[in-house]
């Protein structure tokens, strides 16, 4: 097949990369299902420097203009072919918890999320629903924003790949990579997965050429496309992972990435001739830029403001590189292989870390509409509230691994941990304080805890929680906070202040101090749990007599013992987290013959606690 040389210079000569890397241009090897012919559009060799990358762990970050350390965190840009699902919600809940923790540490956090809105699959989905692509994208993108509000997601930037500022950044980035000699034009033939929007290698396909991710047959396609010279970056990527093994986390994800690279990297197509809904290739309106070469740039374009002059240099200066890309394991290859190579080609720093978490199942089975067992996030949060949803998935799923949801387990966990261990302890203590001390603390918590081992126990558990948050061990962080609650309950049961009050005199004085100690435990729990369950933490803080503004200004330093002062007046006791009760009719219904027309879904009743203040 004759090679076809792309002649336009794409107006890129003024954007020559100052970090050119003289690497091998060895192409990917020919396979039966892939035929290609190529000629580099331009070639440059110099002794320039390779793009910089960070060899630090997550604890080291760039400083902002105000002196605060920056922490730039991203979720994937979610594909808008369909409304948000629980997998997307899980990633974003985790990211929000990490962002909230980093804010408690005093970091200048930029939490980026958004929607990926180009590609064949979106155009097809829009047509199937009787909408044009732009209308479809507006509708689905808004559904993500709505769900994030329902889940108390406090993002800083929401980028849409249909935003004009994003298109400007993508085109400039494309020009840089082109000027560096890493884009060429070639005829391409292969097996294409429409759902993945990716050409597949025959060796990774299942029987009947089915995609292993979507279980659907791939289709044969032949296109005239532009390619990115990924093979050129084989050795640099190997070196990065060798020198900085924390670049990909958890460690078993690193092993996957190293295996992919070791098997040999092949150049990949970065344009589509048969897709109209996308960003046009510069100087070639007949082609659109491949969705991944487009969407990954959203992490950079999101940093700019709408009213700013859009340039790659400006965007990078506002926060790049990212401290952490948080993604599902199914898109690890794009973030840990394609993206770093693209950044090196453009002379930009690499993100500091990529974390690939696992999948969610329901009742031990993979979720799917065909199985009728999907888990709808809107329904879940409306049924149980954001605190319960956030806590369950972060506490019960070891971050990085696959995790399972069952309604029975969900109800059992949130009732035991949030309603009983935490909520009931606060309610009991405030009730005793009102009855015996007119809701007023008799002494500072520092004085009350003198010589009390519980104080040392709590301090150790706070440090344990912090370490786990920092290491992205979110389940263990939740467990450490729950242990603080368990310690408080044990102290309450051992001391039995209700009996001491009845004895009067010195015993009653000791009981009053005990209540101060337990309420200080509750105050610390409110701070330490706030990254995971912010609304619950606010309700706890409010009942301890603090205002919403005081809650919003807390830092991790507020987990230190000694926050409560003598004379402080507590609020009226009210359940901060009501138990989720199974419908009492459920058991009776289960005894009756099943009606085939009924869905069989269990009913639950949630008595929402009184809202003291909005988060």
From TrEMBL:
Domain Methionyl-tRNA synthetase anticodon-binding: from-to ranges: 453-582
Gene Ontology terms: biological process: methionyl-tRNA aminoacylation; plant ovule development
Basic and acidic residues composition-biased segments: 582-598
UniProt enzyme class: ligase
GO terms under cellular component: chloroplast stroma; mitochondrion
Annotated transmembrane regions: none
Keyword Acetylation: no
Stretches for region Disordered: 581-615
Record keyword Ligase present: yes
Domain Methionyl/Leucyl tRNA synthetase: 205-430
Superkingdom of the organism of origin: Eukaryota
EC number: 6.1.1.10
GO molecular-function terms, A-Z: ATP binding; methionine-tRNA ligase activity
Catalysed reactions listed for this entry: tRNA(Met) + L-methionine + ATP = L-methionyl-tRNA(Met) + AMP + diphosphate
Pfam families: Anticodon_3, tRNA-synt_1g
Keywords of the record: Aminoacyl-tRNA synthetase, ATP-binding, Ligase, Nucleotide-binding, Protein biosynthesis
SUPFAM superfamilies membership: Anticodon-binding domain of a subclass of class I aminoacyl-tRNA synthetases, Nucleotidylyl transferase
Family, as annotated: Belongs to the class-I aminoacyl-tRNA synthetase family.
Protein name: methionine--tRNA ligase
Species per Swiss-Prot/TrEMBL record: Eutrema salsugineum
Lineage: Eukaryota, Viridiplantae, Streptophyta, Embryophyta, Tracheophyta
